[in-house]
Amino acid sequence: MLLQVKDLSVSYGAIHALRGIAFEVEKGEIISLIGSNGAGKTTTMHALSNIIKKAGGQVVFEDIDITNMPPEKIVQHGLVQAPEGRRIFANLSVRENLDMGAFTRHDKAGIIKDMERVFALFPRLKERLKQIAGTLSGGEQQMLAMGRALMANPKLLLLDEPSMGLSPILVDEIFSVIQEINAAGSTILLVEQNAFKALGIANRAYVLETGEIVKTGAASELMRDPAVQAAYLGG
After folding, report:
1. Distance from C-alpha of 231 to C-alpha of 235, rounded to nearest angstrom
2. β-strand 56-61 against 30-34: which pairing, if any?
3. 6 pairs with which residues across the strands?
4. How many domains does the chain have?
């Protein structure tokens, strides 16, 4: 098992954002976490990366307990996040953003290889290497956020709302790239408001409601589930 999450809880003061959730991710899978705003999806991602404090529970990655490991060490182990809202370094160039993604690495040949891989996935980034990242379009900024995460050479890539604010054509493009990244060997945990798209490419999915996992199963099964259709698919 690549990732095991056990009894994970997070509180913001009196608010219980996550209430003892548990889930697993196997190597090679695309797993989707779906749920409405405020369900706890982004909180889950931040807890895995240990950029927010947990109230309880355990996170095991490749049989190593990373529950309380510093975030930069978690990245070095291969669990890497492309955060919600892109969070690119707006005042740096595209090239400098990509270099920042590789800051924990020392394998120069591997870094060069991964830079070429990013350019193959996102040709527009290569065209805009010297451009200041804050002047990119929304779609290009999303590509840069994903490219920067790939520069860390992730074994498990956490993607938080990659389609947010994008046009339908760009959404299709981003989801196609997610499948390419997965086919090339990166396991993916996807948080996505567009449940139809997320279930369309996932192997399995978990449904979060008010900090609890209320449904789990094969993505194709959840796509046909009447309750999931009514809540998230406009059915």
Report:
1. 8
2. unpaired
3. 58
4. 1
The label of the residue with tokens 């997965």 reads: 182
DSSP codes joined into one string, the chain:
--EEEEEEEEEETTEEEEEEEEEEE-TT-EEEEE--TTSSHHHHHHHHTTSS--SEEEEEETTEE-TT--HHHHHHHTEEEE-TT----TTSBHHHHHHHHTTT---HHHHHHHHHHHHHH-HHHHHTTTSBGGGS-HHHHHHHHHHHHHTT--SEEEEESTTTT--HHHHHHHHHHHHHHHHTT-EEEEE-S-HHHHHHH-SEEEEEETTEEEEEEEHHHHHH-HHHHHHHS--
pLDDT at residue 235 in the model: 64
CATH no. for residue 184?
Answer: 3.40.50.300
Expressed as residue numbers, the domain containing 163 is 3-232
- Give residue-wise pLDDT tens across range 12-34: 999 999 999 999 999 999 999 99
Kindly give the parts of the chain with pLDDT less than 70.
235
Query: Closest by alpha carbon to 10, among 60, 44, 41?
Result: 44
Q: What is the pLDDT of residue 136?
A: 94
Look up the pTM and report it. Answer: 0.94
Query: What is the rounded distance in angstroms from the CA atom of residue 183 to the CA atom of residue 32?
Result: 16
